[in-house]
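A.,

Following up on our hallway conversation. Structure tokens first:
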């Protein structure tokens, strides 16, 4: 029989990777519970919030093992979530033993994130598409592409220095507005509205808001409410950054480029 402590460690590790990679709370709990139930314990429970995960299991004889793990860093990495799901399915189907499953999850946790160049290009491409989709011209899309590329460089620097997410988003909004205005002043683009909206879209917490709604629909009101609050704070931080730069630009140049 599998040692309850090893099984709980496996489920906690899987839940930690998924939660820190942007998975929904109910999906994290379901994956953890499937792993624990595979071990045929008399009683197994899993519980997750937006910042922590809990798992417990009891073997024959009444020995209960409980573990808690706090999750501080959160990002969006669907590849890691897919890898954990694959390991979980293979473990439940008996294709992996617990040692192999732990090894593969450790490899997934230490997996390198997307390279800075890919992240910069992805944000820039998203900005271009959003600017064009919302009604901007080709020149507005190109402005958003360049502005988003320039914005992502300091954002990645602040992220590597573990600067608080709120401050990063304030800086991101400010840089998006500043670079957009400078490029518009240099002749690239025609509408500051479409340009700035496209540039800040990579910062907008759309995934957090979507996961919050899905958590609430699944009955996880605590996690859903926390995710909604997080999304609101991010949106406010972006607005503060953009608004500050726009007001400073208007005060310095008389709002010539604001239309």
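Then the amino acids I'd put at each of the 259 positions:
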């Amino acid at each position: 029989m599998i040692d309850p402590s090893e099984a709980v460690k496996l489920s906690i590790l899987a839940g930690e990777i998924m939660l820190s990679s942007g998975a929904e709370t109910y999906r994290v709990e379901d994956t953890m519970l499937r792993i624990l139930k595979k071990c045929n314990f008399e009683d197994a429970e899993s519980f997750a919030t937006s910042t922590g995960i809990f798992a417990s299991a009891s073997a024959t004889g009444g020995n209960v093992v409980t573990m808690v793990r706090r999750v501080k860093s959160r990002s969006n990495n669907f590849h890691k979530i897919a890898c954990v799901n694959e390991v979980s399915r293979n473990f439940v189907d008996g294709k992996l033993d617990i040692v192999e499953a732990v090894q593969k999850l450790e490899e997934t946790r230490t997996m390198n994130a997307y390279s800075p160049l890919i992240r910069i290009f992805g944000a820039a491409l998203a900005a271009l598409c959003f600017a064009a989709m919302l009604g901007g011209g080709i020149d507005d899309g190109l402005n958003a592409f360049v502005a988003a590329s320039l914005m992502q460089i300091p954002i990645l620097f602040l992220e590597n220095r573990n600067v608080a997410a709120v401050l990063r988003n304030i800086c991101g909004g400010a840089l998006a507005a500043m670079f957009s205005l400078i490029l518009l002043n240099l002749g690239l683009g025609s509408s500051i509205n479409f340009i700035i909206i496209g540039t800040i879209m990579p910062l907008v917490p759309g995934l957090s808001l979507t996961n919050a709604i899905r958590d609430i629909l699944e009955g996880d009101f605590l996690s859903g409410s926390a995710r909604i609050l997080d999304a609101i704070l991010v949106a406010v931080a972006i607005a503060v950054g953009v608004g500050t730069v726009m007001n400073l630009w208007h005060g310095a140049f008389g709002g010539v480029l604001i239309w």
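The mean pLDDT is 88. Curious whether your intuition agrees with the design.

B.
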